[in-house]
């Protein structure tokens, strides 16, 4: 055996042993077949056999007659540093930390609307009424992990208005959309699995994938939704069995899924046999008739996720999952095992609010504010010779192209020194799908701030 062969063996052994030590490949995981591993590493099957034999000798894996090689429990030393995937996840979540800690005075990178837009009199009045209500309003006991039944009944009705047939037993309440994603990932994905996701897409979700040791495969996002050809190609190449996508008022581009594209996506999912997780964070702001994958599919292979955090209040962490009865039963068990149940108090507040006649007025008022702020932001950007990729989009976000040669990360650092919080586009993009042109995500509510206008005129204005 040549020195080159030994080097290849050492590389394979080092790679697999690292994944096992970091917990990415867990106890009981089956290693790739000899043929598959040989193709992945670009070596002969004999080289893979030698590498696997070394892993057996070092106690990392065990051979099972006729079934391949399987991972043994990882050998960890007390005091080992945190796994690399935790570091990566925290790094991706750094933008989220800035949103939570409020270190900046001008907050264009903010993912939520201003508190005064969503926490108006309608919410405050209900909080006062509930706080002053009878002592017997809530029972001080654990409630069903599936969530407060009257709220699930209301959500079943709301989903019916969107042509999504979901019985009360097909709705699970969660602590916001992020909790819903966490339950789905824990239940259906394992370290080393591939998952398809929008790129650009929702960066806190990317952090969850990294934390779980999941391999992200970015699907290009266009004006009408995910690129169907790219989705089909990536699904075939990766073997991924799950695709996470946001249909409407997409974060960060502001685009929305069109009906024809929705049909294409479902056809591809059926052909290649993968599940779709559809994020509809702004569902109540969108028309009930807007094309939704869950409505076209009727929850056969679509898991539908909604939330009230971005429409009522970031402090009201209530979200939900609508799916088949089998999926909901699995997720209820996962929720029960991880957090027992969610807050019955908060779920009652949300139920009271959304069933009050004032909620409809709140949605209309919020929709007008978003539309007016969006138009104002676009006028300001046009004045600087800049534009958003999707100017006729919806929701809180503008995906803005930066002038040629401007680096989004460096721009974000420069803005931070002036107390301005920007969201660099690269954090929303999966590696391998990034374009040469750099972007930033802007929240329409803050674009007209004169301090940002002054900063942008000095650093971003394109020559006329």
From TrEMBL:
Pfam families from the UniProt entry: Aminotran_1_2, GntR
Matching InterPro entries: Aminotransferase_I/II_large, HTH_trans_reg/aminotransferase, PyrdxlP-dep_Trfase, PyrdxlP-dep_Trfase_major, Tscrpt_reg_HTH_GntR, WH-like_DNA-bd_sf, WH_DNA-bd_sf
SUPFAM superfamilies hit by this protein: PLP-dependent transferases (SSF53383), Winged helix' DNA-binding domain (SSF46785)
SMART domains: HTH_GNTR (SM00345)
Domain HTH gntR-type, residue spans: 6-74
GO molecular function per UniProt: DNA binding; DNA-binding transcription factor activity; pyridoxal phosphate binding; transaminase activity
CDD domains listed in its UniProt record: AAT_like (cd00609), WHTH_GntR (cd07377)
Keywords per UniProt: Aminotransferase, DNA-binding, Pyridoxal phosphate, Transcription, Transcription regulation, Transferase
Coiled coil ranges: none
Family: In the C-terminal section; belongs to the class-I pyridoxal-phosphate-dependent aminotransferase family.
Protein name: PLP-dependent aminotransferase family protein
Protein source organism: Pseudohoeflea suaedae
